[in-house]
Amino acid sequence: MTMVADNIEAGTRERILVVAERLFREIGYQKTTVADIAKVLRMSPANVYRFFDSKKEIHEGVARSLMGEVEEATQAIAAKQGSAAARLREMMTTINRMNSERYLGDSKLHEMVEVAMVESWDVCVAHMELITRTIAEVIAQGVEAGEFHAPDVPLAAMCSCSAMIRFFHPQMIAQCVDKPGPSIDQMIDFVLAGLAPKGK
Q1: Residue 12, domain CATH
Q2: What pLDDT is recorded for position 183?
Q3: Count of the separate structural domains present in the chain
Q4: What is the number of other CB atoms lying within 10 angstroms of the CB of residue 196?
Q5: Which residues touch 84 (CB under 8 Å, ≥6 apart)?
Q6: DSSP for 117-128, written as a single string
Q7: pLDDT per residue over 8-20, tens digit each?
Q8: Cβ distance 36 to 24 under 8 Å?
């Protein structure tokens, strides 16, 4: 009985997050109220508050879901067979593509990211740490195969992510879209050259 209740509760939480994300995209995070979310779901605001303590908690759930999709895509690439350099390139281009598709030209989602940076910083930090760890796994595999030279793998991963910030961070992607600078392929070439064994 408890398992059924837990499943129903998880399903309701998921429905709330799906509707919240849709409304955040349509009318913006700031303008969306818990009452708006409840109305679409045909439930009372009080019922929504049974599952989430606040609008901020709903926002964190939506942000976690969006970031989780990027994390899953990145981890799937890391788990593939083949060259570490090729997988690193695919991971970096995928992160850029997914964040560009979601946030570039979508001012409402862009607003949600800005709010997350201020109100839900822990969610953003956890996401960045997971992406960095996944990149570190691939670098470590490259080192083991003799493909990369990185005496300090965690540092190499942090440096690689920092180098790619213009192409990873939704706000930076939006701000730099028309600014002069290297292409994503040129930046990835630079990162891979920094990881290459000496003399190669």
Answers
A1: 1.10.10.60
A2: 93
A3: 2
A4: 15
A5: 138, 139, 141, 142, 145, 147, 148
A6: HHH-HHHHHHHH
A7: 677 888 999 999 9
A8: no
Range of the domain at 171: 69-195
pTM, rounded to two decimals: 0.82
Give the Cβ contact number of residue 25 at 10 Å: 16
**Helices first, then strands: H and E counts in the chain:** 11, 0
Q: Classify residue 170: in a domain, yes or no.
A: yes
Compute the distance between CA of residue 166 and CA of residue 34 in angstroms, rounded to an integer: 34
Scan for tokens 């965690």, then name that residue: 154
Kindly report the CATH number assigned to the domain that includes residue 142: 1.10.357.10
Cα distances (angstroms) measured from residue 191 to each of 54, 58, 64, 135:
42, 37, 28, 12
CB-based contacts of 115, cutoff 8 Å, min separation 6: 29, 30, 59
Question: Is the residue at 124 inside a domain?
Answer: yes
Distance in angstroms (rounded) separating the CA atoms of residues 112 and 103:
9
Find the radius of gyration of the CA atoms of the chain. Answer: 20
Q: What is the pLDDT of residues 124-133, one digit of tens each?
A: 889 999 999 9
Statement to judge: residues 88 and 157 lie in one domain: yes
In a domain, 147, yes or no: yes
Distance (Å, whole) CA 200 – CA 196: 6
3-class state of residue 143 by DSSP: helix
With CA atoms as reference, report the closest residue to 155 among 143, 167, 168.
Answer: 143
